[in-house]
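Repro case for the chain-ordering regression, as requested:
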Amino acid sequence: MAIAVWLRRLQHAIRLPQVDRDIREEMEFHRFMKQRAFESGGLPPVAATRRAARAMGNVLLAREQARSVWIWPWLESVWQDMGYAGRILRRHSGSALLAIILLAVTIGLNTSLMTVLNGLMLRPWPGVGHGGDVVAIYLDDSRSDSSGAFHDVRGFTRTHWRSLADQVTQLTPLAAFHRDGVQLGDGGTLGPAGAMLVSGNFFDTLQLELSKGRGFHDDDDRIEAPQYVVVLSDRLWRARFAADEAIIGHSIVINGQRFVVIGVTAPAFGFSEPGTATDVFLPLASAQLLWEGDRAAGSFELVGRLTPGATRGRVRAELTVLSQQFDLRQGRTPSAVVVTGTAFADHPGRTPMLFASALISAGLLAVWIVACANVGNLLLAQATARRREIGIRLAIGASRARVVRQLLTEGLIIGLAASVLGLAIAYTLPLAILRFIAEDATARFPFIVTPDWLVVASAVLMAAFSAMLFGLAPALHVTSNDLARQLGRGDAVAVSTVPLRSVLLAAQVAVSVVLLIVAGLLVSGAQQQTRSLEADFATDVSVASFAARSGAYDAARMRSWTTDLTAALPELPLSEFALASQEPFSRLRNGISVHRPGGSEAVGDRRFASLWEISPGFFGLLRIPLVAGRDLDATDADQAVAVVNETMARRFWPNEDPIGKSIVLFRSAPFVVIGVVRDAHLSASSTVEPTVFTPFAAMRQLPEATFPKLLFRSERPVADAIKRAGSRLDPELQIRVAALTAVVKGNFLSGPGYYGRILAQALGGFALALATVGMFGVFAYAVRQRTSEIGVRMALGARGSAIVRLILLRHSRVVLAGLIAGVCAAVTVSIVLRSSLPGLGRFDPVVYVGVGLLVASAGLAASYVPARRATRIDPVVALRWE
Amino acid sequence: MGKDKKPPDLLPGTLDLLILQALVRGSMHGYGIAERLRALSDDVLQVGESSLYPALQRLLLQGWVKAEWGASDNNRRARYYTLTAAGRKRLASEREEFDRLILAIHKVLET
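-- result from build under test --
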């Protein structure tokens, strides 16, 4: 019955305007009928109207009363609660503000992470029609050896792809693509660009809408008739061609060849790999126009669209069978097929990354809980102070539920205000962090990091949960005591130690201990793990980059400029320097095909290596030791000699001495290997790539000219000197000097663990700060409540130090309990984590003891300050303390 | 709650009872209810609009009557109220209560 009444009330409250109209209309009908009655009684119309109006009385009041039947009791009381809560919060504006800030920061952090997960890691390729149906297909290339298991995937060969595409039934067209780097433009406008070579059905498979022109068709991608056509990315079109509306039909130069622009992609279209930019789309068949040989042959990634009813599992089963048949026909060992979504996190081998995100998420949630406990303590202290007021309200007939609701409303207001602020944080923080990590990250990659409804909903939910978490316990606690005690003054001594508050406090301490220990273990583990990696090569160098107006430099001028620069450099106050075609961790991957002189060009015998053109002094500058042979020196300029790294030597000449052997770099004359250097992680990839280093001038056979980078080490700031020297050579040259670490920072994928560790430390520190603030607040309050007791003790002759000891002893129990609980939890957590997070350090006593000392001293400080303050109170004042 | 000032001689809660009773013989609009109460009580009970309409909303809220728009005798739109099953039950119990009350008052007055 009561429920039915509530439902009817709700139903009417929702359509209150309709209720209003109904009442108004029927009362008007009533008045009209009355007027008619008077008229038929013989009154003239005007008099009858007036008489009827008078008989109706105060129509407005009646209408209000009729209407209020529906909304009065519940809406009005909620409104009352809100108003009252607002007044209370304004009176305690300091603590309310603190509570809001604490919650806003934690809710903001949580929603920020969610925004990033949502917009970056879990979303499929954006701008693709029904992106959830698109699957990416790889060959499983996982292997395990003595040093552990590697999860990796590799691409398909052209024939493999064709064979699968012809036979597969559960995917509508199976498209292929290959990512590569090209040189865009000519003369001075030349620059590296990310290219995606795609099969003719690529655009149709993805159901891409282009903002201009058309995508490729099968006719554009015929191997026997390659076409000079290109589709530009929206970003490139805007950045490089100033969003030229008439771009279709124009031609642009790619790797020295002219290609006709036939389309521009829609702005929304993008991929999910943050490290790689895709600027131009070219037909796969056009690869032969860009490079000698079949460069893309072995590395096709496949995408397809599930037919209705098909699942990833079934597609995988079908493709595995087809693929194995193909492999057997080719006489190769079959490998399994991997079918995944196109989201960043779906890519094989990303499970650790997802796990790390889950871990961060758990950490953030823990911090949020600490903040809630903190705010709960704050409110509890406040509510205890309001015991008298609440007692009076209960005494004059307020029900307990009503008072609890009142207190919860206050919590909810705080929570909602915090979630609004938190959302504001979620709107700004992820982008700010991305910009910090890599300035142009947002330009290169379509990050969709604005919170969507899911994030907003979770923020609101968190606010509501916060209110319950921190509001309910204090509210129940405060209203549970009997009336007499509420109204009496007995609480001044009796309630000095509130167990609930101690439990909340201990929980806070425990959570921050867990977070700090995990952060500490991550750091110590990473130190152990990356010690060798970080000593890889010296990174304390700076990079000077040069850029010129478009068309200003051709290959000849570049050559003479490089010579002039080399001549000018010794005059600069540089202690060491070298020129190189790219800087370490450069995004430009200078890949080149390498084979033995006279060796066949069949796929199997050909390898790709990364090419570095360097001047003498490069290895010394970067502290990369020579393992065999000799270093390049000044006499080698223009000579066809090369230094290779250990990986290259191992791959090319296993169990042979590479010194004196010859290699052909991309159809060049043979280069003689003169030295081997130790492996160094010069590129952003986690494994060391086979690398060939050649003297600067020897390999200048690319049609385009790029400026070399100047790497140097110097005791003094020399940026201005370099710029002066550079502009003496060419006044129009743009010169940028930056520390290599800044460049490294720019490539944020270089160390995913790095930011994880920073985040873990920041979280742990934040949790500790929160807990310290919480401890301080609670202890201060507890001491204040015992002021009269302290006064009595002081009046009886207790010394200040004894009082401080007494208080510290009592408070240390709470901190100690939290500390022990936290250490136990941290041990458990770290055991669980270690199995899936190899970066986590083994049991490290330094971390445990360090965190214990840190938390204990924070607790001590939080307790000592109020205790000290209490002893300075005049006993007379203290005795009068209420 | 509305303060029923207009009919000073009406006991609290009686108006609901009277309205329910008036609807026993079929659905009626607000004006009709007021008229019927006046006529049946020989002009003694003058139900004011300020209490009639809030009372009707209360009955609606409790689910004792339901309201529907229809055409009146003179072809104007009027809102007709009908007694629900719950309303009938309520009327019976209210009447019993009321009878006991009246009887008690009588007894007191006649001593």
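Ordering looks correct now. Residues 101 and 107 of chain B are 10 Å apart (CA to CA).
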